[in-house]
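S1.2 Input.
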Amino acid sequence: MLKHFYEAARSSTEDGFKAAWRLLIACVPRWAAEYLNTLLPIKDQWAHCYRVGVLTLGINSTQRVEGSIGKSKKTMGKKGTLMVSALYK
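S1.3 Output.
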């Protein structure tokens, strides 16, 4: 399943995306297919072939999230949680 999702997300053409998406939907349970189909309206945010011409500078959502987590960890310091960190400042 993940292989098909990866192939769809990384496809360089819309036809390749559609073919990989059909394979993905065919190999998952109905509830998973229903969830995956909720992602289709926002495919321009995650599917490579629909992001052609969008300046990303090589940054994807995972990298942005990891950057946020890094900033949070700096804020937490050695106390371990944001709440404890906020209480002792």
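S1.4 Remarks. The two ends are 47 Å apart (CA to CA).
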